[in-house]
Write a structure and sequence with these properties.
Pathway: Carbohydrate metabolism; tricarboxylic acid cycle. The protein is built from 17 helices and three strands. The chain is mainly alpha-helical. The protein has a three-stranded antiparallel beta sheet.
Length: 362
């Protein structure tokens, strides 16, 4: 039976994550995200997705050292990044740089080691190229900083505060993995040909850059900036609803109830109440907007999606919109590499059929 876009066709069996949109549930390796995310670091959750278990103290330290060592870009990759014209979009620069890791010194490593190295270098690539675009010199990684704190350091050249790191890390832990989305499917299709991990991640990045998949939540930022302060919420939203405009950050094609990721992000933002005006505005606005949507569109059941609070967090740390999708990729590479590894463990090349509907000469 023809299913356009393979919608609802089961093509993969996986142990990595399950997404149940009808009940608003997301699990990593069988564990609900609300049980896993709040109490574990980015590095611990990454280890869990890769290996199916949480690391002990020694394993965690070993992973942290590998990630730290992996921050050093090979000289030829540095030269490629520096040679790209500044008008090349960041995701294209990342895709090009990642593809340059297809050399013997890298591909001869075990695939699990390759996954860690690619995870370590993607924020370095993003930061180096972004600063090039801004006419700024690159900043060397700081071995004393965590994966996410170091990313912010390399972007801005100043040490991020604890709240900034905590907010961004929560968002990125929640976006590491989300089932067989388009980019993850691209990675699995590529590596199913027994190509290499570099090619699989290059395919995933190329897919992620499409606005229908990895599009940035810039529309939510525009909404929050238009609202400006709590007293304007009712006026702004009522006007948009009367004009038939979409309220950005509400509704999701998979989740028919609350997005479980938005719930955790809301809790994180609420815990920072009074410490950041944008996070405060987002939490207050969400309540009023949901009430207005329920009144105007009672049959739609529109809830907050992950992009809503992601936008609030990005705005609070002054992350430029052109860095949204690359930053998303800094987290999602965990899922891409885990799926590529899993695909090779019981591989079968993807070869769906097509149905010809064109002209035939009689």
């Amino acid at each position: 039976m023809f299913k356009k876009g393979l919608k609802d066709v089961v093509a993969v069996q996986t142990n990595i994550a399950s997404v149940k949109g009808d009940i608003g549930e997301l699990r990593y390796r069988g564990v609900l995200i609300d049980e896993l995310i709040p109490s574990h670091s980015f590095e611990e959750v990454a280890y869990f997705i890769w290996y199916g278990m949480l690391p002990d103290e020694s394993e965690l330290k070993h992973l942290e050292i590998k990630l730290m060592n992996g921050r050093q870009l090979p000289l030829h990759v540095q030269k490629i990044i520096d040679a790209l014209p500044a008008e090349v979009p960041i995701m294209d620069a990342v895709r090009t740089a990642i593809s340059a890791f297809a050399h013997d010194g890298f591909t001869n490593e075990p695939i699990e080691e390759q996954a860690i190295i690619l995870t370590a270098v993607i924020p370095v690539i993003v930061a180096r190229y972004y600063r090039k675009q801004q006419g700024l010199l690159p900043i060397n990684p700081d071995p004393n900083l965590s994966h996410i704190a170091n990313y912010l350091w390399m972007l801005n050249g100043k040490l991020p505060n604890h709240l900034q790191v905590e907010a961004l890390e929560t968002y990125l832990k929640l976006t590491m993995e989300h089932g067989l989305n388009a980019a993850t499917f691209s990675a699995r299709v590529t590596i199913s040909t027994e190509s290499d991990l570099t090619a699989a991640i290059t395919s995933a990045i190329g897919t992620m850059k499409g606005p229908l998949h990895g599009g940035a939540p810039s529309g939510v930022i525009e909404l929050l900036e238009e609202i400006g302060k709590p007293g304007n919420i009712l006026t702004v939203i009522e006007e948009k609803l009367q004009n038939g405009e979409k309220i950005m950050g509400f509704g999701h094609r998979i989740y028919k109830t609350e997005d479980p990721r938005s719930i955790l992000l809301r809790e994180k933002c609420t815990s920072m109440s009074g410490k950041d005006e944008w996070l405060d505005l987002a939490t207050v606005a969400e309540k009023e907007i949901i009430a207005l949507l329920a009144h105007h569109k009672p049959d739609r059941k529109l809830y907050t999606n992950v992009e809503y609070y992601a936008a609030a967090i990005m705005r609070s740390i002054e992350m430029p919109t052109e860095l949204f999708t690359p930053t998303f990729s800094v987290a999602r590479i965990i899922g891409w590499t885990a799926h590529a590894i899993e695909q090779l463990q019981d591989n079968s090349i993807f070869r769906p059929q097509s149905e010809y509907i064109g002209y035939e000469k009689k």
